[in-house]
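Researcher: Please predict.
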Amino acid sequence: MGARVVGTCGAGGGLRGPAANGESCWAPWHCRMLRHALGKTCRFLGYTVQYGCIAHCAFEYLGGIVVCSGPSMEPTIQNSDVVFSENLSRHFFCIRKGDIVIVKSPNDPKSNICKRVIGLEGDKVCTSNPSDFLKSHSYVPKGHVWLEGDNLRNSTDSRCYGPVPYGLIRGRICLKIWPLNDFGFLRASPNGHRFLDD
């Protein structure tokens, strides 16, 4: 007994039999399109995650561009200056006295501040203001740094909130990028008298 044909595609493009509803010929085409779309979506998501991880590692371990605001670091860094902050120094514990660092604010962890390192753990620092007649001193505890703005009369720093944990340091500013007429490495502290030898 011969096989019975239920439905076929005609030579002229027409359909005969139950296949005339289009399901038998067009369903595979829809599956191919769906697989193609899903494949492109998965590849796009894969590339996005991959490049996102690369960007995160670059910003976390190498550094990035920072726009500074506020008067606390004048005259070294002016409001709206653009600088480059590298992060390797903090990971390798290479922060030194005199470095300008980006730090998570002890008062507001959602914001970052820009200050100069005046003392490392074990260093003796002056904790009083320049206008104070009697000078007071203290020692930086282990795992902390003492931070001050170059503009001592207009800076909220360790003189207000005390020593800052080293772990709050996010990066070290090593280069000023903008304005172009001030491009280059940052100048030394104008408050050299704040650095104590003992």
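Model: Residues 115 and 149 are 5 Å apart (CA to CA).
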